[in-house]
Structures
1.
Amino acid sequence: MTERQKLEKQLDDLVSNIVRIRDRNCITCNKPMIYETSTAGHFMKRDNRCVRWSIVNVNGQCWDCNREDDTDRYEQAMLRRYGEETTNRIKTLAKLPCHYSISDLRQIIYELREIKKQMT
């Protein structure tokens, strides 16, 4: 595994951990969840590099909703939780090409670790 792949794996795991701690209800169906049964669901899919590790783009989802992959329903939930401006910003960012350097990835890890520290 390359250094980039290791850092991206760390980021995926860190974002998943943060949103699964943060979110007690599924963003799309609002059913209560516990950490062990929740997933980190992406509004704009993981291949959209500019928002892959955004803790606004990634939210706690139950297994059923994440598996359904219902973008329209997720968007309605995003609008309720974050509002139109933020939801549209995520959609715009998802369309942009992003090429993170190793240094960029390390910085994102640092910032997310700081967020996680504040949560615990």
2.
Amino acid sequence: MKTIVKFSLKTYGKLLAFFLSLLGFSAIQFSCTKYGSPCNTVRPQITGSVVSENNVPIHGIRAVLKDDYQGYDTAYTAKNGGFFVQYPHNICKEDAQNLHVKLQDVDGNENGSYGDMEIPVSSESVQNLGIIKMSPKE
């Protein structure tokens, strides 16, 4: 007696997916830092305004957005003291990132002489640090 096994198209799809997964193929999904796991991504953007202790805007202050390993984006404050830096890569919201903005007076005594600052920031998509007061170098 001859037995005929009939498979539906849905069953063929499941079998094909099973055998392809054995070979290392998976459904194409957008993944972030973990292979094969989807995530919601953000590209952190940090803004702020740098002023002196007398609330006078300071231009020419270098702002560098860094993580634990290297600096990624560098900007200089404008005449109103404002700056904008952006992380160059998408990161998963779920992944903790240790980001910080390093502020440095690199123009010497031209706009006054100020000490360096390092401000920890979160990896939210957009973050405004508000007004940042820099102290004079001693």
3.
Amino acid sequence: MQNRTDKTREKLMLSGMELYARFGIEGVSLRAVNEHAGSKNNSAAHYHFKTKDNFIEHIISYMFALDDDEITAFTSEFDGVFTGVEQAVFEYITPLLFIYEEREWGRFGLKFLAVLLISQQSRNIDLWTEEMIEAGESFIKQLDGLIPNTAQDELRLRASFMVINFIVGLAGEDSIENTVFGNLSAPSQEHQLKQLMSLISYCAAGLSGGIQQKK
């Protein structure tokens, strides 16, 4: 059970996540976060987190504090859907997909990450937790086995672009209601799965298509 301090910190982080997603990182002050959270203390965010950079790092840690059992139950729904590089991509981006699909604040969470990735503020912030870095190294090793004789620097660069594309792709899902190709939004759960498969296939093809070989 959360104590009063933990509840206050969580409310502030959720408010910050939503405001940053809507208005950008540079456009939102800690004071604005306090007001949005309904805090009676107009310096609550500063008291609990000291600086905006530290506040944002706490939001990221909060987002990725995931339960292994929940993740296992979530991935079981996709057994047999993907193979090869697509399966590797799916396993690696599962935390992002889980957040997006299973958390009430998931859409704001992914939009917050997308905004942060292109923000000047991101240069001062440790974007990735230790667990995410370890998962990244494991992903590269897995890809090296699936795409043999690959130049490591090229593979890492493509994997970085893939993560960015996936975050922005999920965060911008609402935008596909109005594209140059028409309304591509998902009208049904079956269509949503096909949409997800298309995004993962796109990411997988970007990793393996015409990639530079080791010399």
